[in-house]
C-alpha cells in the first residue's frame, strides 16, 4: 500500500471574495501571500490552472493540474451573489445535483475531486494550491460525508488542510 501525504492550500484572497461575487478564471489576487508560501520540506507541488491559484503558488515550482480546477459555475461566473435569484441560489444550496447556472453540480465536483485524489497522486508528500470549493469536496471525500454537508464547510484564503492516505483517506488536524 502506498502512503500519501497531501496538503491542500486555498488560494489567497481575491477581489471577488471581498465584494461577494463568483470568480472569473483570470481574476488576480487582491492580497498576494507575503511572504510567499514557505514549506518546511520539499514535496511535489501542484496547482489549479486559474490565475489566482497560480499566483498563490508562485515560488513553489508547481505543476498545473486540471484536476484541481475550480467548480464550473457556468453563467454565474463573475456575478455578485446579490444578483442571483433567491430561488436559483436556494436550489443550488439545497440540491447537490442542481445546476441552475448551467455548469458543474456540487455532486459532479465532489466526484471529480474524489477521482483525482484516488488516482492522480503517487506515493510521497504533495502540496496543492486550489480553491475553497475543491477543498470542501476533498474534505467530504476523506470523511465519506454526504454531498449535502458541502455548504457547511468554510475554507478561508490560505487555509491549509492536510490529508493522509494509507488504505483510505484521513483528514489530519494539526
Automatic annotation (TrEMBL):
Name under which the protein is recorded: Histidine phosphatase family protein
Pfam families hit by this protein: His_Phos_1
Amino acid at each position: 500500500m502506498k502512503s500519501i501525504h497531501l496538503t491542500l492550500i486555498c488560494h489567497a484572497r481575491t477581489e471577488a471574495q471581498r465584494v461577494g461575487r463568483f470568480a472569473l478564471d483570470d481574476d488576480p489576487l487582491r492580497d498576494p501571500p507575503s511572504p510567499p508560501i514557505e514549506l518546511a520540506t520539499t514535496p511535489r507541488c501542484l496547482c489549479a490552472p486559474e490565475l489566482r491559484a497560480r499566483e498563490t503558488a508562485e515560488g513553489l515550482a508547481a505543476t498545473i493540474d486540471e484536476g484541481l480546477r475550480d467548480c464550473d459555475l457556468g453563467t454565474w461566473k463573475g456575478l455578485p451573489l446579490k444578483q442571483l435569484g433567491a430561488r436559483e441560489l436556494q436550489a443550488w444550496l439545497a440540491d447537490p445535483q442542481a445546476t441552475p447556472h448551467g455548469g458543474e453540480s456540487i455532486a459532479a465536483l465532489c466526484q471529480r475531486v474524489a477521482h483525482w485524489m484516488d488516482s492522480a497522486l503517487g506515493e510521497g508528500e504533495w502540496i496543492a494550491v486550489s480553491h475553497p470549493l475543491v477543498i470542501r469536496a476533498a474534505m467530504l471525500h476523506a470523511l465519506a460525508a454526504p454531498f449535502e454537508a458541502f455548504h457547511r464547510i468554510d475554507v478561508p484564503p490560505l487555509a491549509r488542510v492536510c490529508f493522509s492516505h494509507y488504505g483510505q483517506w484521513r483528514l489530519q488536524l494539526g
